[in-house]
Amino acid sequence: MRIFDPHIHMTSRTTDDYEAMYAAGVRAVVEPSFWLGQPRTSPASFFDYFDSLLGWEPFRAAQYGIAHHCTLALNPKEAGDPRCTPVLDALPRYLLKDNVVAVGEIGYDSMTPAEDTALAAQLQMAADQGLPALVHTPHRDKLAGLRRTLDVVRESALPVERVLIDHLNETTVKEAKDSGAWLGFSVYPDTKMDEERMVALLRAYGPEQVLVNSAADWGKSDPLKTRKVADLMLAEGFTEDDVDRVLWRNPVAFYGLSGRLNLDVTAPEATHEGNSILRGQPRDAPTPDTADAAGA
Amino acid sequence: MTRPHAAPAGPDADTIGRPAAPGDGTTPAVTPPADLRRHLASRLDGAARAWFDQAVDEATTHPGTHGPISVWELRLAEAGRRCGPEHADAARVLILHAARADAEALTRVYHQGTADERRAVLHALPHLVPGPEALPLVEDALRTNDTRLVAAALGPYGARHLDAHAWRHAVLKCLFTGVAVDLVADLARRARGDAELARMLGDHAAERTAAGRTVPEDLHRVLALTEAAPAQGAAGPDVPHGKES
């Protein structure tokens, strides 16, 4: 089974997670930029984060056999903070980068005028750069948020067919599907969707343009939720082809709209079999010990 | 999708392999740009070749800074998806060369670049910067744990300009992080007669042995190099090829 997690925040996860994800069949991920739990106070803090998503994190992922791409944006939570909004000025330069496969996550948090401005500006950037957009729906007042989101998308230069609406659920799936957008579902341990409800929605609405993600981050979340949904789909009578469609071909098709998706994992050629991350090797392992290297 | 090439090293992996020659022996930091361009042009398919030729022409005609982003900087960013990842380093080095990027421009695009772009800047340094003014970029790359950046930092430019202390630590870092020392430019010349490097290597070997770990074969190879008679000024920077009197 091959799995593409189209929304996961690997910056917050450990190498154990990468290892477990590879074992579960995950071969590709997209990491949307988002907030880090702790509000940032300057654009420079964003730029270091973007650099990490364009450098260190794909390097880490490659060592575990996983292709890593990212989406970049000023996220909705911080779009209302005037200390952070200058990020919008620098964003076009970042969106040019090879590994950027969409603008995102953008959308609404509290539905403020500042969020309106940031959402519209970033949809325009996506249109300008030939990128699709990952638009999340708010956690609070979700249905109203979805409607307002779809209105802004329709008014934008970006066709709705190039938009993935994420964090959908039973109350928002129908209107999102009717809009023509791609449909994203985040499966969490307690909140958002769970495996059983996900499979029920797949049965009710079909697998077309549906993407399932773990959205795993620094909160209570599970990077193997994609595999768990796949297993339940099979147990509930979906075919292998259905699973491959939802968990591989749909994300490949959506992010492939960027023209930048490269699913070959390139070995960090300088390392050969060694690497700078697999610390704490078994005693007899010939891999160089790097426990001290991180402090270098 | 087939199994990726980069599965993590298992306990039975051969740690210190010889470097696969990047591409087929043409390394962007060492090969003269004219040869590199001829070599790359023969390997790009039609669309990539046309894109690349235009990118080099644009960089040649419009170097320097203009507008919110210079066209050659834009081409630098997209070189990976246009030429394919296996040709991206060479393409980027050639675009930088065509744009006659100086230390100031290289510093800007390094800091604004992805890891791939930063690596290309490091490869371009020996072609474009005669003096030590771009050394901070080498030092920045050596602070990372991205082995591709560490290896690129130890190309001909780093070999020429790093002082003895920084260079020794960089060599040791290669042994720590699994960068094959064959990728270190000018290794034999700089290591020759370097008693301090020999001491550091010996201590590192002792530490690994005390922990019940194997000592990388590369460590013994570098140690052997240190035992050769010192060339005049060999341990210091700015002595390319040891030809200074």
UniProtKB/TrEMBL annotation, chain A:
Spans traversing the lipid bilayer: none
Any one GO MF annotation of this record: hydrolase activity
Ranges where the record places region Disordered: 272-296
Domain of life: Bacteria
Compositionally biased spans, kind Low complexity: 287-296
InterPro entries membership: Metal_Hydrolase, TatD-like, UCP005295
Stored SUPFAM superfamilies: Metallo-dependent hydrolases
Keywords: Hydrolase, Metal-binding
Family annotation (Pfam families): TatD_DNase
Family: Belongs to the metallo-dependent hydrolases superfamily.
Name by which UniProt lists this protein: TatD family hydrolase
The species this protein was found in: Streptomyces erythrogriseus
